[in-house]
UniProtKB/TrEMBL annotation:
It is an enzyme of class 2 (transferase). It comes from Cellulophaga baltica. This is Adenine phosphoribosyltransferase. It holds the Pfam family Pribosyltran. Keywords: Cytoplasm, Glycosyltransferase, Purine salvage, Transferase. Its main location: cytoplasm.
Length: 170
């Protein structure tokens, strides 16, 4: 299925020169939303997954759906100050600045098999930072799943050999 026709380009967002891939048009169509969730599930359906990690904020859209299908727990990675318990933090470079991610210290147990999910793999900075948090807690990253991959930005190269699957490639 050609999911690209359900993605809208927004030029110069969030800053001049960036072409933002807007997934709200895909999300608003129940049939396409369901098909996309099923395709993302197909990438890992044969794997034993203990936790699905969703990155703030659009990783929260498909992450819980994948967790339910995989009979796994869902764990959010959030921006600073959003999680109420003891957190582990990492600061990283973005294509247009820096940011910080946080994860509850007790959300992943050593040896748990983890699926990392986010909406877009661009330069790989956010996913790399999330992998650092997961691995620091002892999680084993089975795969990184993305709805969209901007291959021309070479984000996979930053993920240190982690398995990567993406539904839509640009």
């Amino acid at each position: 299925m050609d999911f690209k026709k359900y993605i809208r380009d927004i030029h110069d967002f969030p800053k001049q020169g960036i072409v933002f891939k807007d997934i709200t048009t895909l999300l608003s169509n129940p049939e396409i939303l369901n098909k996309a969730a099923n395709e993302l599930y197909e990438f890992v359906k044969t794997e034993k997954i203990d936790k699905v990690i969703g990155l703030e904020s659009r990783g929260f859209l498909f992450g819980p759906l994948l967790a339910a299908k995989l009979n796994a727990g869902f764990v959010p990675i959030r921006k600073p100050g959003k999680l109420p318990h003891d957190v582990l933090s990492v600061t990283y470079e973005l294509e247009y600045g820096t940011d910080t991610l946080e994860l509850h210290k007790d959300s992943i147990l050593p040896g748990e098999r983890v699926l990392l999910h986010d909406d877009v793999l661009a330069t790989g900075g956010t996913a790399k930072a999330a992998l650092e948090l997961i691995r620091e807690l002892g999680g084993e990253v089975v795969q990184c799943n993305f709805l969209i991959e901007l291959g021309f930005l070479n984000g996979r190269e930053k993920l240190n050999g982690a398995a990567v699957a993406s539904l839509i490639q640009y």
